[in-house]
Amino acid sequence: MKFSAITSACAGAAFVGNVVAHPGMAKIVDEIKANIMSRQGGPVDPALNSNELIGDLLTLQDSQLTPVAKDIKATILNQANGESLETYSNVPRLGTSQCKADTCCVWQYIANEMVTAFKGPSGRCTNAARAAVRLGFHDAAGWSKNTGPDGGADGSLILAPEEIRRPGNRGLEEVVTLTQSWFNKYKGYGISAADLIQMGANVATVVCPLGPRTKTYIGRKDNSKAAPDGLLPPVDASADFLIKLFQDKTIQPNGLVALLGAHSTAQQRFVDPRRAGDPQDSTPGVWDMLYYNETISPNAPARVFKFASDIKLAADPRMSRLFTAFAAPNNAAQLPWNLLYAREYVRLSLLGVNNINSLTDCTKVLPQPVRTFVPNDRCEVKTWMSSTKNVPAIANALLDGKLITSIPGLSSLLSSILGGLLGLIGIGRTGSNC
After folding, report:
1. pLDDT digit string (tens) for 4-36?
2. Which terminus, N or C, of the chain has the lesser number of Cβ atoms within 10 Å?
3. DSSP 299-311
4. pLDDT in tens, 197-232
């Protein structure tokens, strides 16, 4: 398979749909991955894949598992896809007996509200979406094989006030308030805060253009006791520390590489306040592969903000091959990354969950994925990303998922950055023509 064919296949919605719908198509995905790996630094060691069982899957025999639990087990063991395109038709009206009889019904109404909050006018995802993904990570990651029964995906980040005050959760205050408002509105329908957080993370991920539609499960139990402290990854930690931290959560280096890609949509605000709003790749609010490329590139655009920990992890020999493979040009690895991310996030979203055998699959309430995306302000964003001058109005518009062309006086702002060279670098052109 030629490299150009890989790029085309990974971008094709029909191809993606077939792969997700039919596990037998995994062979094609493996061929794509092998082709990319061979061109980008060699094969990736399968011994670095996450393959431990979690929760009650550790003690139950296959004959005891429900169909949903069997699928979860197969997914986290790399035997099934972590994405699903299942749809939900004829949704009952909220509050009716038919809706009460369907576990997923109320979640369709919740997911619809989330989409409104997470999708910006530009089509990019909003800061609320990015924060919801981070909230899902942080609630679930407060768990380790060595810290006892508490922590994990148990809702404690919005139920235990102590957690949001921890330094590692700084910046989540607004999304915690938003999620608490949804919880207060819908808890009378029997939802849990734990499920609400993970639903928010998965809705946000698929709302971000090019993001995967990760399998989403309902039925976690809440815990108002704060998770053990010290289990979240510091942004300046060593690769050895971070790899060990995630291995203690059953996540091996290949899985960690995939999960790091969520930084593709991010804009940091607190690691370096002087550069508040700077993205971690040059397409903020888009779930593409540029994070991998620009993290390892010495020629990344000036405004790309790189966490010290990400640089260290990308260079570590246990992670560098897959990281480099995901940095393949033209988003060629988008499909393999989405599949690996979804599978690994299924694992993460169930850490500390000990009733996996009683969960319900409600992936069908998620919106369908956006497989292609070219924003109308691409040229203007590219110009700003190449500058060294901080322009809060642009950073804030991107945080809100807005077109930066909606900012009054944008041309003057960009002229002040680049000294009147706008015509030479493409400002005034639209779409992909820059």
Report:
1. 333 333 333 333 344 444 444 455 455 555 555
2. N
3. T--TT----HHHH
4. 999 999 999 999 999 999 999 999 999 999 999 999
What is the per-residue pLDDT for 419?
55
What is the per-residue pLDDT across 367-413, written as a single tens digit (0 to 9) for each?
999 999 999 999 999 999 998 888 899 999 999 999 999 988 876 77
Locate tokens 């749809």: which residue?
87
Cα(45)–Cα(60) distance, rounded to whole angstroms? 29
Known binding-site residues equal: 139, 152, 154, 156, 263-264, 281, 283, 288
Output the six-digit token pair for 357.
């055998």
Residue ranges at the known binding site for heme b: 263
The single-letter code of the amino acid at 27 is K
> Which pTM value belongs to this model?
0.89
Contact 256, 181 (CB under 8 A): no
**Which residues share a beta bridge with 279?**
267
List binding-site positions for Ca(2+).
139, 152, 154, 156, 264, 281, 283, 288
As a whole-number percent, the residues of the chain with pLDDT over 70 amount to 85
Cβ proximity of 254 and 337 under 8 Å: no
Instruction: Return the percentage of the chain with pLDDT > 90, whole number.
Output: 76
The tally of CA atoms less than 13 A away on the side-chain side of residue 91 is: 19
Q: Considering only CA atoms, which of 355, 384, 397 is closest in space to residue 223?
A: 355
Q: Which long-range contacts (CB under 8 A, 24 or more apart) does 159-166 make?
A: 159/193, 159/222, 159/223, 159/224, 160/223, 160/224, 160/225, 160/226, 160/227, 162/226, 163/226, 163/227, 166/229, 166/232
